[in-house]
């Protein structure tokens, strides 16, 4: 993660709003639209690529969906938390007036969150994908998968287990953490790779804990041929399956997500949500 000056953010009056459909999110969105109009902004629930800001209303899932829906655009984004976790969603719905005043007066900074970029190879095609949280390779139907893991073409290990996850620093607070993976501070330029139930027996010696890699490396996951048509790739929780799958290369993208931050409360978030 890196920072850019708030003076670099082009300001205009158009603001995208992407909301969950539950009652609390809809009520907050209605209130937000009214307050933004009172401050002479132009809020829209129809995605406008020329907007100065995108606001997501919901939980962390809403933020992740919004990032994917906007195709990882450079438009700054901020979240209003009406969900349960709210690690990405910083703004309290009860403090909309404070949020708008701080935004109008440039009382914030912009965190640049790294994105995972994936190249997915089959016998016939190459597919591309991006993720702000994590990418996971599994076998279908909850079966064990056997794969070779390479780092910059150097063989790391032959893995056997339920699957393998690669996460961004911000993504380590999601699925990765539920697997017992390590948290990585957002300012650390690194990817975390965490196994899903690695097998350790007389026949298999699979990794059991998270490995943290410097951000310039490329991680390649190459399953055995028998999984060519029974694979499952999860990209920020969305499931994909590929015919004649060969391998997936994962690295950091050159793009970044520009997330508005009004309070530097990372450690408070960790304490209140995870400890």
UniProtKB/TrEMBL annotation:
Entry's Gene Ontology BP terms: NAD+ metabolic process; NADP+ biosynthetic process
Molecular function via GO: ATP binding; metal ion binding; NAD binding; NAD+ kinase activity
Entry binding sites for NAD(+): 60-61, 65, 133-134, 162, 173-178, 197
Domain of life the protein comes from: Bacteria
Pfam families: NAD_kinase, NAD_kinase_C
Record has Flavoprotein as a keyword: no
Listed SUPFAM superfamilies: NAD kinase/diacylglycerol kinase-like
Enzyme nomenclature, EC number: 2.7.1.23
Known catalytic reactions: NAD(+) + ATP = ADP + NADP(+) + H(+)
HAMAP family in the record: NAD_kinase (MF_00361)
Family as reported in the entry's similarity comment: Belongs to the NAD kinase family.
PANTHER family recorded: NAD KINASE
Protein's name in the database: NAD kinase
Protein source organism: Aedoeadaptatus coxii
């Amino acid at each position: 993660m890196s920072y850019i000056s708030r003076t670099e953010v082009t300001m205009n009056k158009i603001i995208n709003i992407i909301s969950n459909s539950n009652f609390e999110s809809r009520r907050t969105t209605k209130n937000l639209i009214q307050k933004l109009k009172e401050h002479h902004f132009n809020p829209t629930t129809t995605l406008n690529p020329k907007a100065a800001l995108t606001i997501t209303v919901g939980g962390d899932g809403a933020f992740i969906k919004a990032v994917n829906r906007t195709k990882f655009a450079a438009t700054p984004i901020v979240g209003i938390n009406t969900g349960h976790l709210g690690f990405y969603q910083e703004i309290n719905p009860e403090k909309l007036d404070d949020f708008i005043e701080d935004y109008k007066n440039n009382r914030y900074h912009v965190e640049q969150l790294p994105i995972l970029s994936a190249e997915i190879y089959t016998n016939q095609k190459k597919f591309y994908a991006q993720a702000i949280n994590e990418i996971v390779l599994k076998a279908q139907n909850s079966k064990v998968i056997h794969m070779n893991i390479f780092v910059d073409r150097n063989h790391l290990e032959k893995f056997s287990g339920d699957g393998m996850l690669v996460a961004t620093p911000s993504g380590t607070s999601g699925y990765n953490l539920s697997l017992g993976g390590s948290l990585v501070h957002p300012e650390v330029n690194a990817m975390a790779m965490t196994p899903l139930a690695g097998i350790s027996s007389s026949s298999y010696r699979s990794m059991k804990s998270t490995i943290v890699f410097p951000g310039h490396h490329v991680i390649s996951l190459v399953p055995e041929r028998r999984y060519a048509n029974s694979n499952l790739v999860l990209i920020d929780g969305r499931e994909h399956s590929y015919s004649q799958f060969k391998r997936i290369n994962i690295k950091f993208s050159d793009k970044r997500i520009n997330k508005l931050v009004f309070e530097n409360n990372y450690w408070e978030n960790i304490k209140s949500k995870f400890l």
